[in-house]
Design brief:
Length: 146
C-alpha cells in the first residue's frame, strides 16, 4: 500500500493568487511557512523555517482566495506533487508542491464575522467535517471517552 499524505500548520507568507484556467477551473497558489526550534549540543537555541508551496483547485481555491491572507494561520492537508517543466530560456525547472485537499483557518474570527472556519473537499458535492466547537466551550477531563 502506498500513501502520499501531508499535513502542515503554519502561516501564509503572501496572499493567495487566484487564477482561472481556459477550462474555467479556478486554481489558487500560496506559500505557508512552518518553523521549529530546538537546543543544540552547546545549549544554543536554534530555529529553522521551511516554506511550502500550496496549490488549491476549484471551490477550495476560491475559498482560499476569499478568506486567507498574508500571516493567516492555517492547517493544510493534501498530497505532495513534484512538477518539472522547461522554462522559456530552455532551462529545466522543478517544483515540489502540496496539492491541498482541505484546510482549516486557525486564526480567531474578527468580531461580527460569519465566515466558516473549516473548508473541506475540493470537488462540488464533497463533504467536509463539522466546524470545531466554539473557543469558549471548555472540555473537561471527565468528558473524554477514553
Amino acid at each position: 500500500m502506498d500513501l502520499n499524505r501531508v499535513t502542515i500548520i503554519g502561516r501564509l507568507t503572501r496572499d493567495p493568487e487566484l487564477r482561472s484556467l481556459p477550462s474555467g477551473k479556478s486554481v489558487a497558489v500560496f506559500s505557508v511557512a512552518t518553523g521549529r526550534q530546538w537546543t543544540d549540543q552547546q545549549g544554543q537555541k536554534q530555529k529553522q523555517t521551511e516554506f511550502h508551496n500550496v496549490v488549491a483547485w476549484g471551490r477550495l481555491a476560491e475559498t482560499a482566495s476569499q478568506y486567507l491572507h498574508k500571516a493567516s494561520k492555517v492547517y493544510v492537508e493534501g498530497r505532495i506533487q513534484n512538477r518539472e517543466w522547461t522554462a522559456q530560456d530552455g532551462t529545466k525547472r522543478n517544483r515540489t508542491e502540496i496539492v491541498a485537499d482541505n484546510f482549516i483557518m486557525l486564526d480567531s474570527r474578527p468580531a461580527g464575522s460569519t465566515g466558516m472556519p473549516l473548508v473541506g473537499a475540493t470537488e462540488p458535492g464533497g463533504s467536509s467535517a463539522p466546524p470545531p466547537p466554539p473557543e469558549s466551550e471548555e472540555i473537561r477531563v471527565e468528558d473524554i471517552p477514553f
